[in-house]
Amino acid sequence: MSGPTRILVVDDEQSITDFIALGLRHEGYDVRTAADGHVALRVVDEFKPHLVVLDLMMPRVDGWQLCRALSGDRARGIIILSARDETSDRITGLELGADDYLVKPFDFAELLARMRAVLRRRNPDLTRVIHAGDLSIDTATREVRAGDRKVDLSVREYDLLLYLASNADQVLPRQRILDEVWGYNFFGDENNIEVYIRYLRTKLGDTAHERIQTVRGVGYRLRSTVDGSDAAAR
Questions:
Q1: Which range, 65-74, 95-104, 129-138, is most confident?
Q2: What are the pLDDT digits (tens) for 95-112?
Q3: Distance CA 154, CA 192 (A)
Q4: Which of 70, 97, 159, 233 is most buried, judging by how many CB atoms fall within 10 Å of its CB?
Q5: At residue 54, what are phi and psi to the nearest 5 degrees?
Q6: At a CB cut-off of 8 Å and minimum separation 6, what does 28 contact?
């Protein structure tokens, strides 16, 4: 099977599966849901997900059993998402084959970041090309395209754009951008970011600052969709 990255969300609380599925589909993932481990096993066979996000306390086949059953496939990631927050539960989940363990209530942005990290480890080919709307970045060739147009960038411009696109739609504080793109030992100031953001906007044709938004007093956000409707942050 090819196409978008496939994610299976398994939880007997429909409000949770609906919330996660909606957010992941917005990010471009192909998502299926299941209300218990028994149904999930059937979906896994036909859907062949790259990653499974599963709860522990479910009827019929619970999350422990499901995690054990799925752990044999080295190309498939597993993240446990549970209200159980004892250290012993985390250890058991990881020993059963889970790649990560996140406690409810959770922040969707954190779940998304952990999913991306697991997918990078389990299926590095999936993240070779990063998409954010009509923007694509091939991390193997370092080729950047905005729609059908190739965009030539300097090394620093590329690194900055890659970081923004890898965290699309998230507001990234200036200091965090400096730490991640320029490095923790960088002794310059935040004006460097502003200069390179200006370079990127020029090369991407972002004259209205709709693709890369300045969030006053915080930092910057690269939008995965650009429709001109969110002008408040500019």
A1: 95-104
A2: 999 999 999 999 998 998
A3: 14
A4: 70
A5: -135, 145
A6: 4, 5, 131, 224
What is the fold, at CATH topology level, of the domain defined by 6-127? Answer: Rossmann fold (3.40.50)
Torsion of CA 39, 13, 47, 127, to 10 degrees: -150
Residue pair 197/184 in contact (Cβ under 8 Å)? The answer is: no
* Percent of the chain clearing pLDDT 90 (strictly above): 60
Which SS3 state, helix, strand or coil, does residue 176 take? helix
Domain 129-222 belongs to what topology?
Answer: Arc Repressor Mutant, subunit A (1.10.10)
CA dist 89 and 62 (Å) reads 14
pTM for the predicted model, two decimal places: 0.58
Share of the chain above pLDDT 70, in %: 91
What is the spatial distance between Cα 11 and Cα 18, in angstroms, rounded to a whole number? 10
In the chain, where are the structural domains located? 6-127, 129-222
**Burial environment of residue 99 by CB neighbours within 10 A (0 to 12, 13 to 18, 19 or more):** buried
Q: Which two tokens stand for residue 9?
A: 């969300």
Distance from C-alpha of 136 to C-alpha of 138, rounded to nearest angstrom: 7
For residues 115 and 79, the answer to whether their CB atoms sit within 8 Å is yes
Does residue 87 surpass a pLDDT of 60?
yes
All residues at 6 or more sequence positions from 125 whose CB lies less than 8 Å from its CB, including other chains: none
Q: What sign does the dihedral 20-26-27-30 (CA atoms) show? A: positive
